[in-house]
Design brief:
Blueprint: H1 7-135, H2 140-188, E1 199-203, H3 208-214, H4 219-228, E2 231-233, E3 240-244, H5 248-264, H6 269-298, H7 305-313, E4 318-319, E5 322-323, H8 324-341, H9 346-355, H10 360-366, H11 370-380, H12 385-393, H13 403-417, H14 424-441, E6 446-452, E7 457-462, H15 469-486, E8 494-499
Parallel strand pairs: 7-8
Antiparallel strand pairs: 1-3, 2-3, 4-5, 6-7
Helix pairs in contact: 1-2, 2-8, 4-6, 5-6, 6-7, 8-9, 8-13, 9-12, 9-13, 10-11, 11-12, 12-13
Amino acid sequence: MVIPISMTAIAGIAIGAGLCYVWFKKSAKSGLSHMMMEAKAKAKAIEHETELMVKSAEVKIKETELEQEREFQKRFAKLDGRHRALLLETKELAAKEESLKLSEKKLLEKESKLEKLEKQKQDEINKAVESMQHIASFTKEEAKAYILAKVEEQSRADVAAIVRRYEQEAKYEGEKKANYILAQATTRYAGEFAGERLINLITLPSDEHKGRIIGKEGRNIKTLEMLLGVDIVIDETPGVIMVSSFNLYRRAIATRVIEILVEDGRIHPGRIEEIHEKVQEEFEAKTYEEGENILIDMGLFPMHEELVRLLGRMKYRASYGQNALAHTLEVAKLARVMAAEMGGDEKLALRAGLLHDIGKALTQDLGGSHVDIGADLCRKYGEHPTVINAIYAHHGLAEPDSVESAAVCAADKLSAARPGARREVLESFTKRVKEVETIALSKAYVDQAYAINAGREIRVFVNAQKMSDNEAVLLSKEIAKEIQEKVQYPGEIKVNVIRETRAVDYAK
């Protein structure tokens, strides 16, 4: 059955379709317009951001340019200053050269005049001799002798005056030149000075570590003092203990051992001995390295490795309260400057200054004069004869045979004589304590001897296999008697002779 559609319905459908088309078209246009607006906004944002980045880059470029300009100005100012200084030096050198030329010219003129006067004098003498031969019937030889005697008699006073004047001028010029050289040396090198003390302070994490260091019934501290050869002072001062010894090397090793034990936390006799051996090996390597660094800095290679090691060990040696290595470096640098001023070999003077006190590194072990020890060492290891002469000459045991040796002698006196460089009281104390140790070590079967407690006590460790308890008692009395006879000291000195027997075996 076909349902008839009226015209009205058809017209409605057509109108609806047209309206829908118009609505869709408007909607599409609206969406496209919105997208275009968003794109334009984003484009503007990007453009704005780009402008900001460009401006920021321009600012950075300008800052960099300004910084480079400032740096350029600084460098230019430095170069300009150097240029001016060089111009001044050139002018001074030209003036000195001109002055020397004038002096040379004057000397040549004087020599020419002297030659003419000498010739004139000889002519006058010859004339006088001839006239005297005719007048007094003198032979030629008699007349000449007579005139020369008269001339000598008349000229003696004049000659003496001239000689005296030139001697005074030479003395004045010599003193002036010597003062100039010393002034140049001291202004070119200003060494630092720090007085060595007799104690080292060790900071502890807490006061609990004091008890660990002392140990049960004091066995840890006894082991430490026996092995290290120092006096360990533990008092009520919070957080610190003191290590006391006149020997810088022993004191440095003891300080390092205790610091390692405190860090590790395990403190007992076995561990103390183990750490002590390791630290001794470490210090031997360290002293060689320090000596090697000094030679590298000064450009004095090659040198025998034993001298290098002893040079590093001088850091742990003091003389009259002055550190031996600091004094040695000071003397070496001063001697180099002086030798340069006097036209000598700078490197040879530097080497001689560096080795002039090398014997002091062994005096605490061997005893005797550091001059003889040092000279024998340098002779043994093939050092230059000037170095050996400087070692003897700086203590007046030989005359300086060169400019370099004389420079070392002057530098040594200059270093030692400056205010605060040396302390006589400390040196006398150190010598007294060392003498006490030497007396104990001279006895048979004594392995080690350490003066502690500011020299008021000496601990002597003997070989238990070769000495009995009764002999140890006799030894303590013998040492005490010899100290009483040979050493001057205030108060009293306690002599402890320690005989320890150890039995060691291994379970395998």
